[in-house]
TrEMBL record:
Residue stretches spanning the membrane: none
Bias (Polar residues) ranges: 82-95
Name of the molecule in the record: U3 small nucleolar RNA-associated protein 25 homolog
Similarity field: Belongs to the UTP25 family.
Subcellular location: Nucleus, Nucleolus
Keyword Thylakoid tagged: no
SUPFAM superfamilies in the record: P-loop containing nucleoside triphosphate hydrolases
Gene3D superfamilies: P-loop containing nucleotide triphosphate hydrolases (3.40.50.300)
Native source organism of the sequence: Rhynochetos jubatus (kagu)
Broad class of where this protein is predominantly found: nucleus
Gene Ontology biological process terms in this record: maturation of SSU-rRNA from tricistronic rRNA transcript (SSU-rRNA, 5.8S rRNA, LSU-rRNA)
Superkingdom: Eukaryota
Subunit relationships: Interacts with CAPN3; the interaction is required for CAPN3 translocation to the nucleolus.
Keyword tags: Developmental protein, Nucleus, Phosphoprotein
């Protein structure tokens, strides 16, 4: 839809190009501000603060409201996506503190973490120590007992989900079926996850049954995870946890039950406030379990090959991919990577006396940690905002992690890493584009587990980076990178890696773009599991102001025509009703930046009395636009969803509200409506709220008004009037 919108809008080529490339880095930089500038931006409504704005800002205003309020947009001409502006908005957290308590290893610190360009550093000092080719099981385990699961096959190892999944062999015909045949699906309801859809291609899909109780010893966890997981996960366990299941919360138990079968999983109910860390811990357990088993298999086979008598024909030890990285974890901010590494360390440390050796820890803490001094103390933001933007929120990073049982190597070169933790932008800049000389994506060729966490945030960043990544995972490498082909699994040599890759996708919401990733880029032969719960009550029930809501339906012939149809509907049917001066203080909420540019250009062309705020608007332009709108000097305010996502300012003075499209995040609907209570004019009887929607907005509509109302509204072609009192 973004592409169609781009073509249909009157924006300049440069604006469209920058939206694709440099996106939101300059915006993120503005989050790192001093308490003084924040309090000025907040404009508490007092005249003193408004008067406190610098005279230079006012002088530069003149007649260029349509020019300088765009200043931030015009400012984004730097299209070099290898630059970023790191920013920290909150204080330290447990992950950073835990790392800080560990002794530094003397590695060269990175210096000032607020550097302006990503400094590529890779640890070459520990290459042989972490090499899978030159280490052996005895050295790895430290006691003469190699992991018994990698000794002669036993019943336990044959039942291990890892072995079952990776050892499955296919014929060419079966692989062709996976590529061409439609998936069969079935439904099931689980106690905690709710409504699940199971789908598969090769065989008739049989739904899993949720394990009511889980014995850690039966999960085939690699040591030391059996002993460390209950301790690491203890903060999430309540006192009411069953004695028979002391290790997992109900949500974790059901999620791990799916993960451990190596099915793909889409869970769209991740919440940074409630279950975010709970989910992060359980997918870290699964990823680490996979890596330890895979490495133990290689080291065990190294030992067998070493101990073979000269001249004897050895067994076929095919235990590797074409490249070493097995797990790719995509997260939005450095803080997320910090927490993941901390969880890995905790899971590998059997006791306080047996600390694992972590190389480059000091450097890692400097580059991924945050300074508690940098958080302005007077910020008033919703709790979910504080949870999402905790710690270091720089969005341009990538780091390789190599893991052996008693040690971890941070900043490992990608081709010597087991796990890669990165942001979509961090991946985009290393993958590059066609025609670029310096680009590399061979290290993605043998990814066995892909974890995409907080996928909804990438909709607010640049979704193109995620699509670009998905197109480059599990391709045949262009170079051999020194691999021993006698050890490479046949599935990798046959270029069938994508059929064995497990994808775990976590999001705060259902969205067509996220669904598309799961449906079009996931080919797991085991099948897929998607959580598909419908919202019974929408976010409209959280609106606390008494307000009439008018939902106006527009008829579009196809999904591709919705963008143009919406624009014409707004211009021809909605806007004329608001042109009258009586309908002043009208805020137009626009989720898409492309639609925003199109509307802004139309408003300029029609010479309407308006101001506008988007994610690229400079601080001075934001202050000015908010003040003009509050005082009624500007009749309209165009307002983008991304600006609201990154700033969460309360816009005062709203009397009429138009949702040009339903919000991406359902709770933004009630948040923006509730901004009206900040208006002290006492004219609530004249407040209005108008929402534009089409039949293609069913998911967003259900999240706002609930599933029952949505069904009625989609069946009826009439406008729907709702009067909300906060109890609806």
């Amino acid at each position: 839809q973004a592409e169609n919108s781009d073509k249909s809008s009157a924006e300049s080529d440069s604006e469209a190009e920058v939206e694709q490339v440099s996106v939101y880095h300059k915006l993120l930089a503005t989050l790192k501000t001093s308490p003084e500038s924040e309090s000025e931006e907040e404009e508490d409504g007092s005249e003193s603060e408004e008067a406190g704005e610098s005279e230079t800002e006012m002088d530069s205003e003149g007649s260029q409201e349509s020019g300088e309020a765009d200043g931030g947009e015009e400012e984004k001409n730097d299209e070099n996506i290898t630059h970023f502006s790191p920013c920290q908005v909150t204080g330290t957290d447990t992950a950073e503190q835990a790392l800080g308590q560990e002794p530094a290893d003397g590695a060269d610190p990175s210096g000032d973490p607020s550097r302006g360009v990503i400094e590529e550093f890779t640890d070459v000092k520990h290459e042989s120590e972490f090499s899978l080719e030159t280490n052996f099981m005895e050295e790895e385990s430290g006691d003469g007992n190699a992991d018994k699961r990698d000794s002669p096959p036993s019943q336990a190892s044959s039942e291990d989900p890892f072995k079952q999944h990776i050892d499955k062999e296919f014929e060419e015909k079966e692989v062709e079926k996976m590529s061409t045949l439609p998936k069969t699906s079935s439904q099931s309801k689980w106690p905690r996850l709710g409504q699940l859809t199971f789908s598969a291609t090769l065989e008739k899909c049989k739904p899993l049954k949720a394990d009511k109780e889980v014995d850690v010893k039966q999960l085939h966890l690699h040591k030391p995870l059996e002993s460390t997981w209950p301790k690491v996960n203890k903060p999430f366990l309540s006192s009411v946890n069953k004695a028979s299941d002391p290790s997992f919360t109900p949500l974790q138990r059901e999620l791990f039950c799916v993960m451990n079968t190596y099915r793909d999983l889409f869970y769209p109910e991740r919440n940074a406030l409630t279950n975010g860390e709970e989910i992060r811990h359980v997918y870290c357990l699964h990823a680490l379990n996979h890596v330890l088993k895979a490495n133990a298999q290689v080291l065990g086979n190294n030992t067998k090959r070493r101990d073979q008598k000269p001249g004897t024909v050895g067994d076929d030890h095919r235990d590797q991919g074409l490249t070493r990285p097995k797990v790719l974890m995509i997260v939005p901010f450095r803080e997320c990577a910090l927490r993941i590494v901390h969880i890995f360390i905790s899971l590998l440390e059997v006791s306080d006396k047996r600390k694992i050796d972590v190389s480059n820890k000091k450097r890692f803490k400097g580059e991924f940690g945050s300074d508690p001094e940098e958080k302005p103390p007077n910020l008033k933001r919703p709790e979910d905002y504080e949870a999402v933007f905790a710690g270091n929120i720089d969005d341009h990073f990538r780091i390789g992690v190599a893991i052996l049982q008693k040690s971890m190597r941070l900043y490992a070169p990608f081709y010597s890493s087991d796990v890669i933790i990165a942001s979509p932008l961090g991946m985009r800049t290393v993958i590059g584009a066609e025609g670029e000389k310096k680009r590399d994506f061979d290290f993605l060729s043998s990814i066995e587990i892909l974890i995409i966490d907080q996928a909804d945030i990438y909709l607010m960043q640049n979704w193109e980076h995620v699509l670009h990544l998905m197109k480059h995972v599990n391709l045949l490498p262009l170079d051999s990178h020194g691999v021993d082909f006698s050890r490479v699994r046949m599935l990798n040599l046959n270029n069938w890696s994508k059929y064995y890759r497990q994808t775990l996708l976590f999001s705060a919401l259902q969205h067509p773009q996220i669904n598309s990733i799961f449906n079009k880029h996931c080919f797991n032969y085991v099948g897929q599991v998607a959580v598909r719960n419908v919202p019974l009550r929408g976010s409209i029930s959280q609106v606390v102001v008494q307000l009439p809501h008018v939902f106006r339906r527009l008829e579009a012939e196809s999904l591709s025509s919705v963008i143009d149809t919406r624009f014409r509907f707004f211009v021809d049917k909605v806007l004329p009703e608001y042109r009258d001066a009586i309908m002043s203080h009208t805020l137009v909420y626009v989720p898409s930046y492309f639609d925003y540019v199109r509307l802004r250009n139309y408003f300029k062309k029609e010479d309407l009395n308006f101001t506008h705020i988007c994610e690229y608007t400079k601080k001075a332009g934001v202050c000015r636009a908010r003040r003009f709108f509050l005082k009624g000097e500007k009749q309209f305010l165009l307002f983008t969803e991304r600006f609201h996502f990154y700033k969460r300012y309360t816009i005062k003075g709203i009397r009429n509200l138009i949702f040009y499209e339903l919000p991406t995040y359902p709770h933004f609907y009630s948040e923006v409506c509730n901004m009206m209570k900040a208006t002290d004019s006492g004219v609530d009887a004249t407040w209005t709220c108008t929402v534009l929607y089409s039949k293609y907005d069913a998911q967003k509509l259900a999240a706002v008004v609930g599933i029952d109302r949505t069904a009625q509204m989609l069946q009826s072609k009439k406008n729907v009037h709702l009067f909300v009192t906060g109890e609806s």
